Each structure stands twice: as C-alpha cells, then as structure tokens.
Predict the 3D structure of the following.
Amino acid sequence: MSSVLRWLFFALIVRPVLLLGLGVHVRRRELLPMQGPAVIVANHNSNLDALLLMALYPLAKLKFLRPAAAVDYFLTDPVRRFVAQRIIRILPVERGGARAGRDPLTGCYDALDQGEIVIIFPEGSRGEPEMLQEFKKGIAHLARARPGTPFTPVFMHGLGKAMPKGSLLLVPFNVDVYVGQAYQWEGTIQGFMARTEASMAALAAEGDFPSWE
Amino acid sequence: MSNTLGLAPEVTTTLGALFAALIGATVLVRLIEPDPQGELRQRVWSWWIMIGIFTLAIVIDRVASTILLGLVSYLALKEYLSLIPTRRIDRFVLLWAYLALPVQFYWAHTSYYGMFIVWVPVWMFLFLPVLMALMGDTKGYLTAIGTLSWGLMMTVFGLSHTAMLLGLDPALSFSAGGAGLLLFLVIATQFNDVAQFTCGKLMGRRLFGNRGIVPSVSPKKTWEGFLGGVIATAVLAALMGPYLTDMVPLWSALAGTMIAVAGFCGDITISAVKRDLGVKDASHLIPGHGGILDRVDSLTYAAPVFFHFYFFFFFYGFAG
C-alpha cells in the first residue's frame, strides 16, 4: 500500500514538479551509487533536498533510498509523520541522542547492513539557504563504524531559492546538482571530516551562482 | 482548405520541407564532423527534438501550439531569473511575475489584442514595483525591479507575440492562416541565425576587414555574417511569404529583412546580458545550443517586430 503511494507520489508529483517544473541539470550523474550499501553526503537548503536526490534515481530504486532526518521535526506532526515514515521512509535520527547515551545512528547502521543507500545532510538543520554550514561529525562516526562503505558527495544549488526553509511557497528556479567522486573511511575522524569539507567545497566552486541576498 | 489533420496544405508542405532540410543538415554534418559527440552533431540532434516538438504542437491544434509557446516563454523567464542576481525578499514578487505569463498567453489565445498589448507593459509594469515596495526592503530595489521588468518584457511580452500571430487566425482569410504567419516568423528567425553563423564562418573577414560589429559584446559577429544572413533570409522570406501568408514577394522580402535585423538585435542584447553576468551560455538545457535563451534570443525581438509589421501593414491593410 505505502509502496504504491510512494511510487505514485514520486511519479506524479515529485518528478514532474522538480524535473520538469524547476528543471535540474546534473553533472556526472553516473557517479551516483546505484547499489548499496552506500552513503550520499549532500548539502541542505530546503525541504525538497531529499526528494530531489530520490527523484534522480529510477522509480524502481526508490525502496533502497533512505534519507536520514531529525526525529523532532518530522515525527511530531501526524501528516508529516505519515509522509516521512511511510512515503519517504526516513531514517529517524534523534538529535542530542548521543548525550543521553543512545547512538543516534543506529538506524543508519541497519540500513547500510541491509544494502540500502543512506542520504545524509551533515549540515544538520537546513541553515541559511544556499550557504554551506559547518558539517557535523556524525558522518565520520558512521564511516568509522562501517569502513569500506563509499561516501558520495553531492552539492545542490537552487532549491534553497525555490523553497527555502520556513516557506511553503514554491518559486521556480533552475537547479544544479554536482556529483563528486566517492571516498571512504581512512582511519581518523579529522581526516574524514577534512575530506568531506574539501569535496563539498570543490563541488560548490564548480558553479558560478548569482548573488541571492 | 484543410486536409485530414485539419492543417492547411501550405502548412503541411512547409513542415515536410523543414524535415527535408533537417535530413540534409544531418547528412552534411555527418560528413564534415566525424566526432559523434561534436558540437555541430549535438546541435543538429537538438534541432530534431525542437522541430519535432514544434511540429507535433502545430499538428495537434492551436491550443497545443499556444501552450507550447507559453512553455518556451516560461523556460526563458525561469532561465533568466536563475541567471540574474535576485533578492531573497522578492520571492513572492517573482511568483507574481510567473503568474502573469499564463494570463498573457490567454489573452493571445482569445485574440484579445487590447489586453494582450497592455498586460505586461502597463499593468505588470505598474503592479510589480508596488508589490516589491510593499515587501519593505529598499536596498537594491531599483536594480531588482529594473531587471525583473526588463526580463518580463523580453521573455514573456516579446515571445508571446508568437502566440498572438496564432490569435489573429480567426480574422485571417488566406489558407495557412495564423499557423502560416508563425511558421514564416520562426523559420525566418532560426534560418537567419544559422545563415549569419554560416556566412560568418565561410566568408571570414574578407570584405570588411578586421573590424567586427560590436567586438566587446559578440567578438565572433562580423559584417560579412550579418549582411550574408540578412540577404539569405530576405530571399528565403520572398519565397515563403506568398505561399504561407498574404504578403507578395517584395513585402515578404522586406519582412524577412526586418526579422533578420531584429534577430540580430535580440542576439546581441542577450549576449550583452550574458557578458555582464560573466557566463557563456544561459544554461545547459539544449545540447550544442546552450540554454533556451541562447536559442530564442533572436525571437524576443523578431516576434514583436514581425507581428507589428504585419499587424500595421496587412491586418489593418495599410499596404493595400
């Protein structure tokens, strides 16, 4: 039932609105991981980010895609909860869970162990639209726990202008997606974070984006 | 006079000739460019897609054609707004600019010339600045409203004249009607682009020396290419006009000349915008061509110029 809804939601709404209405130009689409276990590391500007990354995949691959998302935001409101759990199938991440002695990444480990593709936004909450925020170290812990898993960096631009956080108004803008080379755990948290930041900065520097103030 | 598809025979024949030219171009490009990923090969392949969609819309009916033209205008507006610097606070204003687009094409479709001609240049021109002022941020206000108004005029008002040619259809008495006028305009405009490019390549700078037309805006535009394009387009127009429209050869050639000159104006205007913004292509939508603005830049000028030329001299009958 929910897999049919998911298929319809993506085929009839998400893909037409994002791919045709806004228009998405993907550089190096072939670098997107097609088989799990794999992690996509992306920047976060808009509620639509996870939907766009999922829309870049064939509909048959939807069931392998699992965006990690904060429990406190997505699981409070009943409608949001239904969409998040049943349609998008988020991996719930409990913010501040580590301080309470629980590993917030448990869901991600399970997903990777089942051969799924996990989508992670290391900036945490969507910051100022179209501005890269400092990355949280959670992804490095994930990489350490599952060494050998490929992490593919993806930089997106445009969705923060089309639908920034706090807005439900969709204003059309062209969207650019830059996919980078996958990398993996190499022994240190610091090294992994530096690699992540460098990859993302390099992808962001490929575009020449007009000012948005 | 119409066949089973409801198309005038002149329109069917012209579309057939278009595909024959396309096949010719495909064969020619295969001979001169061996690399299948080469720019010319990509460009011709994109022409197949564009002419295919255009033909399909014309074959279906006038509603489909107007929707397609509206879609082209939407893509051009979106590309423009994605290209220029915008202010975060103006998102709501931009949404209204987008909403003006279907309304403009609706006026064209219903042949409501009175509203068509004032909707963007009067009502949107007055409305959007007020809306933007009500947003309450004056920093960058003048640039924001200036760029938005200009973009709306070019991409929506200018391009919607293509749909208004179809809007004249009910009042036209010759066989091909509005579709004939649209085909005449679009073929002449796009032919002129190709002819200016080709003449420029073939003749180099042999006749007029090294001085380009506006080297600081379009370094590759030469007088040889420009004049060659104008002459070739005028000749093609003289042949097409009497068949597709109610214009005699001489008037058709004059219309072709105006389309060629206007097309050049649209081209260098968009070039100036791109150069100001420091980009080569407006986007990557059409392989081998760049963005949609790179393809319809000439049409933003040629469409209103040809429409008003025809409207004044023939629709109102001043040309006798």
Notes: Residues 127 and 133 of chain A are 6 Å apart (CA to CA).
